[in-house]
């Protein structure tokens, strides 16, 4: 499972919110969606090659025991469970990562051209 950085999720949420308020922006955002995903994948692959390893999301669950006295809990022992995701380094095949990066860049060029045409269509549809 791929975990996107928080700033990417916030940017996506803001873009979607703006798109809801503006049909032209929604059209452009939709046209650029695949390009943005590929940009993220390219950045991640380049980072993996720079570092020599990848980060893999790993879900974790932690249970903690603490002392607490409440009317509902006269024994004074409480447990809390917290779910989290941590990233751990994993080995990569550098040659495979380079091939993947080359393929992603080729695909990005194709998608950019398609997105350019779709954005032009959005501009024409909402010109006014």
How does this model look, in words?
The chain folds into 2 domains: 88 residues; 39 residues, no CATH class. Helices cover 60% and strands 23% of the residues. The chain contains 3 helices and 2 strands. Helix 1 packs antiparallel against helix 2 and helix 2 runs antiparallel to helix 3. The chain is flat. The two termini are 43 Å apart.
Percent range for β-strand residues: 15-25%
Distance between the termini: 43 Å
Q: What structural class is derived from the secondary structure elements?
A: alpha+beta
Q: Residue-averaged pLDDT, rounded?
A: 86
Percent of residues in helices: 55-70%
Largest sheet: 2 strands, antiparallel
What number of structural domains do the residues give? 2
Task: List the secondary-structure elements in sequence, H or E.
Answer: HHEEH
Indicate the radius of gyration in whole angstroms. 22 Å
Record keyword descriptors for this entry:
2 domains, 128 residues, single chain, alpha+beta
What would a concise description of this structure say?
The protein is an alpha+beta fold and 128 residues long.
Which secondary structure elements does this structure contain, and how are they paired or packed?
Layout (H helix, E strand, L loop, with lengths): L5 H16 L1 H29 L1 E15 L9 E15 L2 H32 L3
Antiparallel strand pairs: 1-2
């Amino acid at each position: 499972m791929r975990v996107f950085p928080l700033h990417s999720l916030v940017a996506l949420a803001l873009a979607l919110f703006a798109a809801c308020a503006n049909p032209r922006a929604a059209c452009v955002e939709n046209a650029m969606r695949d390009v943005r995903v590929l940009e993220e994948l390219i950045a991640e692959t380049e980072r993996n090659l720079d570092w020599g390893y990848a980060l893999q999301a790993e879900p974790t669950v932690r249970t903690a025991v603490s002392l607490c006295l409440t009317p509902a809990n006269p024994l004074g022992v409480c447990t809390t469970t917290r779910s989290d995701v941590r990233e751990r380094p994993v080995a990569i095949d550098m040659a495979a990562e380079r091939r993947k990066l080359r393929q992603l860049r080729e695909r990005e060029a194709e998608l950019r051209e398609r997105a350019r045409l779709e954005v032009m269509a959005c501009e024409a549809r909402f010109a006014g």
